[in-house]
Amino acid sequence: MRLWVDADACPNMIKEIVFRAAERLHIETTLVANQPLRLPPSQYLRFEQVPAGFDVADRRIVELMSAGDLVVTADIPLAAAVIDKGGTALNPRGEVYTRENIRERLSMRNFMDELRSGGVTTGGPATLGPRDKQSFANGLDAVLTRLMRAQR
């Protein structure tokens, strides 16, 4: 099992939690982004820079990941592709995307895109706060525990 992070829009506080988990659990973790990132020194952390462009990082993650891997992303289409490939997707608020909830989330995302393209101001997601940080840490721990047990 490997851990992947869609790092272009991933908040730093979430990346720090991922870094600590990778080190604590000895999980190979790769951050993929189109901008350079600084990583703390660790044998478990890697960075892959991709060219700028629409969904380039997302496509690279799907290309490299395997069934059983975990991907941290807020991108719903990427989460759907991860699930289709047999992986697990977790968003920065600690919510696991599943086969049961991903289609509904895609529909809502597409609906909101249609509203925005029609000129309606919809706003973005709320800023992550301390409760979200804790929810992510708890969600990450739960998913990693489940995936590591499944490997045994």
Q: What do you see in this structure?
A:
It is a single chain. The chain has five helices and six strands. The chain has helices at about 10-25, 55-65, 75-85, 100-115, 130-150, and strands spanning about 5, 30-35, 45-50, 70, 90, 95. The protein is globular and about 50 Å long. Strands 3-2-1-4-5-6 form a six-stranded mixed β-sheet, sandwiched between helices. About 50% of the residues lie in helices and about 15% in strands. A hairpin with a 5-residue loop joins β5 (about 90) and β6. The model has no long low-confidence stretch (mean pLDDT about 90). The chain is of the alpha/beta class and about 150 residues long.
Question: What secondary-structure arrangement, pairings included, does this model have?
Answer:
Layout (H helix, E strand, L loop, with lengths): L2 E4 L5 H14 L3 E5 L11 E5 L6 H9 L5 E3 L3 H9 L3 E3 L5 E2 L1 H19 L12 H22 L1
Parallel strand pairs: 1-2, 1-4, 2-3, 4-5
Antiparallel strand pairs: 5-6
Helix pairs in contact: 1-5, 3-4
